Structure formats: C-alpha cells, structure tokens
Amino acid sequence: MPPAAGADGPRILPLLSVICATAAFQVGAALAKGLFPAVGATGAATLRLGLAALLLLALSRPWRAWPAGAPRLPLLGLGLSLGGVMLLFYLALTRAPLGVVISLQFLGPLAIALFDSRRAIDLLWAGLAGLGVLSIVGVTSAAAGQDGLGLLFGLGAAACWAGYILFGRLASRDYGRSAPALGLTIAALAVLPFGWAEAGAGLFSAEILPLALLVALTATAIPLSLELYALPRLPPRVFAVFTSLEPAFGVLFGFLMLNERLSPGQLAGVGAVVLAAAGSAWTSRTSKAA
C-alpha cells in the first residue's frame, strides 16, 4: 500500500510524475485534433478512453491481484469522474473558445487547493496559480458573450476534475496499480453510448486507429498512471496546484508542435504558474519539517 499523503519521505518522484503526466497530456491533446473531423467530440472522447483502458488492462491485468474487501464506491467515482471530465471538456470545446474552457476546468483543482488549505501562504500560491492561468489563456478578454451551454459544460468538467482528485486518492490506495486500468474501463463504458450516438461504426474505422492509439497512450494511459501514482503520495493541495502547470505546458507544446507564439501576458502567466507550483511544494515540505 502506498504511503499516506502526509507521510515522511522524499516527494521528488511524485512531483516529477505530475509534471511528466502534464507534458504527456498536452502532446496527446495536440495530436487529438486530427480525430475531431472523423468522429466528432464525443467519438474522440470514447476512442481515447476506450483504447487507453484496453492498453492498461493488458499491461496491469488487475484481475490477478484483486484486493479483498476493497470498497467499490471510490473506484466507481473515479471512473465516472474521468468519463465526465473527458466528455464535458470536448463538448465545451465545440461551443466555447479553448482558453475559456481550460480556465473553467481549472476551477476544479483550484477549489481543491483552496478548501484543503490551512495557512494564508497556501491561499497565496493557489491564487497566484489561478491568476497565471487567466493570463495564459486570456480569459479576461474572451469570457463575455460566450455560449451559455458551453460554459456549463466547462463548469461540469471542473466539478468532475475535482471528483477525480478526491476519488483518485482513495481508489489508488485501495486498488494500487490496478486503479488506472479499472477507472478508465468504467469511464469508457460510461462514455460509449454518447460516442456511438455521434460516430456510430466510424469509431472502429481502421484509418483512424493508429492516431487514436497514439492519442490514447500519450493523452490518457501514461498521464493517468503517473497521476494515480502521485495522488496518494502528495497532499491534495500540492497536487492541485501542480496540475495548474497544464495550461503552461499547453502553451509550450503549442509553440513547439503548432508554431503558436507566446504573448508577453502569456509569458507572465507561465512564470506565475511555475512560481506557484514551486512555492507550494517548497512551503509544504518546509512546514512538514517544522
């Protein structure tokens, strides 16, 4: 069983796992754009979850070491939260700009960071991360007049992301390395009816299978496994603030892979997010030592 979040010991590996998971997710997100024309938003979500679940089931084979007496509710909550994040995020992208959707989705982990806080300095790091995200995506100049349903989808994705953090900590303690595969399987089954309704048999097209497999691996299987390794080993606040690196990595990989240029405001936002993540980890470790 992994150590509790507050247990003594180095946190460098869990922190690096979160950072690597964020980078992998952004690479997969850039690649996923090629799936939208073929299968739509819900079809892309279904393929991403389903193929990632099959990959992890084949690798981890959770039925070989099923924990006796482990509660089912956290695992179910993890799977439904994962499915909700993916489905609602893609649906929001069809109705609202990417910057607005990312900002709304980030409200989930930011709320975890705030509610889990015990000191004023913790609120400072969470607030700085939030301001950094707003600077990166430029939501202050684009939020007005957006599609109302798209904004609701974005808020729903935020709530599901918060549920993923909370349920993921519990499920990864109870199911260990099997949690990612089992959670993704539940998520894929929950989203499948929506994907089938939009794309039908197009989900099984051999032409899109290579790209879909690559997206599932880089955007779901790898980052989820890394995050569920880190979740029970980090306080929720530290994990939540470190997930704010996601928009920063999105800007970085947008520049590297899509030749998107950074504005001065975006550069300032990246710096604020990195400072908040580093500050949160440093003050958490210092407080524990004290």
Distance linking N and C termini? 26 Å
Oligomer: single chain
How many domains make up the coordinates? 1
SSE-based structural type: mainly alpha
The run of helices and strands is HHHHHHHHHHH
Q: State the major sheet.
A: none
| Overall spatial form | globular
Provide the residue-averaged pLDDT: 78
How large is the count of helical segments? 11
Helix content: over 70%
Strand content: under 5%
Low-confidence stretches: 1-9, 140-145, 286-290
Number of strands: 0
What's the alpha carbon Rg, rounded to whole Å? 18 Å
What does this structure look like?
With about 290 residues, the protein is mostly helical. The chain has one domain (about 15-285). About 75% of the residues lie in helices and about 0% in strands. It contains 11 helices and no strands. α2 (about 35-60) packs across α8 (about 210-230), α3 runs antiparallel to α4 (about 100-115) and α5 runs antiparallel to α11. The longest helix has 28 residues, at about 150-175. The radius of gyration is 18 Å and the shape is globular. The model is unreliable at about 1-10, about 140-145 and about 285-290 (pLDDT under 50).
Keywords:
290 residues, single chain, 0% strand, mainly alpha
Offer a concise description of the structure.
The protein is an all-alpha fold and 290 residues long. It contains eleven helices and no strands. It has helices spanning 12-32, 36-60, 73-93, 98-115, 120-137, 148-175, 179-199, 209-230, 236-242, 245-258, 264-289.
